[in-house]
Write a structure and sequence with these properties.
By secondary structure, this protein is of the alpha/beta class. The protein has 11 helices and 10 strands. β7 (164-167), α7 and β8 form a beta-alpha-beta unit. The N and C termini lie close together (10 Å).
């Protein structure tokens, strides 16, 4: 299982320090001159930024996106199709437009799409993504029902031809230990800077626990972890390491369950 650290543009140096190589960046936010700062050691996933554009009332021009990728695609391990929120047919049309130019974007199926799109992409492609999931993280029963439905349709393709599935915005160990995602991304690791959160990977319970940085300051001080108290960078490094531990254990979990993806 591969975990991509999303929202990492300002914090790539921190990820480099802890040996985290997989990052996700958005075409909407990633400036053209920043492409040249990417290193060969980084495994970069380029999201089209369609959801962010939709939420901000912006429009991404597909021809500009295509030209950008033609020029820079070698910098990215994976690049996503320009999906259209709420319109799976237009999303499929964009997939075909990009493929006709010689590109191979990762197709995405959004929450609520008809089963025919799951079947189409699952049967035709080696690697697809499930999107539109982030709003559902606050509606766990809905998220669970949708993922149950998706994987009921897609699991035969995983077993038959090694289909890989990416989960956009899926950083929860509860989700990733239940559903066989090949890869996922989230900004959850940034909580150390945003909220003072300190994660601890519990390998026994298979869970990322918030060990209560602000609620348990005395514990941190007794333990000598004053760096965590004073420096958000130290919290980010600590949290990133915990997500790497989660990634490694999730990989072992799915291998034990008999699901090993081709790299």
């Amino acid at each position: 299982m591969k975990y991509y650290f999303a929202g990492s543009k300002p914090s790539r140096s921190i990820l480099e320090e802890v040996g985290a190589k997989r990052i996700l960046v958005s075409y909407l936010d990633f400036q053209k001159d920043e492409v040249e700062t990417l290193k060969p050691t980084e495994e970069v996933f380029l999201d089209s930024g369609a959801f962010g554009a939709w939420s901000k009332g912006k429009v991404i021009d597909i021809q500009e996106y295509i030209e950008y990728l033609k020029k820079h695609k070698d910098k990215f391990r994976i690049y996503a199709n320009l999906d259209v929120i709420g319109d799976p047919e237009k999303t499929l049309e964009n997939q075909k437009i990009m493929e006709k130019t010689g590109l191979n974007p990762l197709p995405t199926v959004h929450y609520g799409a008809d089963d025919k799109y799951l079947i189409h992409y699952g049967s035709k492609y080696p690697y697809i993504a499930l999107g539109g999931l982030v709003p559902l993280t606050k509606e766990r029963p809905i998220l669970r029902n949708w993922l149950n439905h998706c994987f009921k349709i897609l699991t035969p393709y995983i077993k038959k031809k090694g289909l890989k599935i990416h989960g956009f915005g899926m950083g929860s160990s509860d989700v990733l230990s239940k559903y066989p995602f090949y890869s996922a991304d989230s900004t959850s690791w940034l909580a150390g800077a945003k909220y003072g959160t300190c994660y601890k990977w519990d390998a026994q319970k298979f869970k990322l626990r918030d060990i209560g940085f602000f609620k348990e300051k005395k514990t941190y001080m007794r333990g000598g972890n004053l760096k965590l108290l004073d420096h958000y960078r130290e919290r980010l490094k600590s949290d990133a390491k915990q997500f790497l531990l989660m990634e490694a254990d999730l990989t072992k979990l799915w291998e034990a369950r008999g699901i090993v993806w081709p790299d």
